[in-house]
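Contributing new records

If you add data, match the layout below exactly. Sequence lines come first and carry their own label; structure lines follow with theirs. Keep one chain per record. Anything else will be rejected by the validation script.
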Amino acid sequence: MTIIVLLAALAALGIAFTVVFISTAVKRGETRTNPEAIALGAVTNFFDTLGIGSFAPSTAWIKFRHLVPDSFIPAILNVGHSLPTIAQSAIFLIILGVNVDPVLLASCIVSAVIGALIGAPLVVRAPVRLVQTVVGVALLIAACLYAMSNLNLMPIGGTATALPAMEMGIAIAVHFLLGALMAFGIGLYAPSLILLSLLGLDPRLAFPIMASACAFLMPTTGFSFMKSKRIDMKLAIGMAIGGIPAVLLAAFVVKEMPIIWLRWGVVVVVLYAAFLLLRSAFRGSRATVGEAA
């Protein structure tokens, strides 16, 4: 019953988000995307479905190519990846959701959404240097997580389909924090997977939890981001157009593939993007100090 309710809610949210997404782009005159944006959405969401994650690689490419100002990145990630993540969540819920404790599943989703609702307004008003610093540090953490995964240092996890009360409370509280950080463009997948595995949950069952948490919180915060001036709708539209079929391809056709060397490549690219972001933040901070003096 819980899965049916969640799928119905996802469908309603997806329809509402699509309507606002298209109408906002039309109103802003930003409906014409480009092949690079579509390819970015396709590649990152394809590997996101296979467990790589989409936020860090997307951020790295956007920064490397200087596609938008740094302060636009969180909004573009949350808006552009929303519809592909909804598709991904629906797939994981149908395939694996029935095996997860419905209370744990629903509680983590609600907690993450509330956290994101608090975080989104902060991002919109945050100084550019703060956004650069937070995203830069997040990329460093993401690179470490990718490296740990390649070196088999990630927690193995247990076989549980539910968590005891205390562990569930920890999971709910941490997902609130992860939801708030998602608004800054910091991916939830890897930390959520690590947390739930450490608490004893079967790692496979973490996928419907983390995908659904993102699928509900990203469109929810996306409504706020689309009202902001800090977004490029053309890039976001392209990512959505490329991302949805890529998710379906990865989930139903490819299913799994050896991606260890790809992860090492992502580590290098993400570290480079983190360096660029933190350097920009440091230079901005130093310039502000010089002006004040």
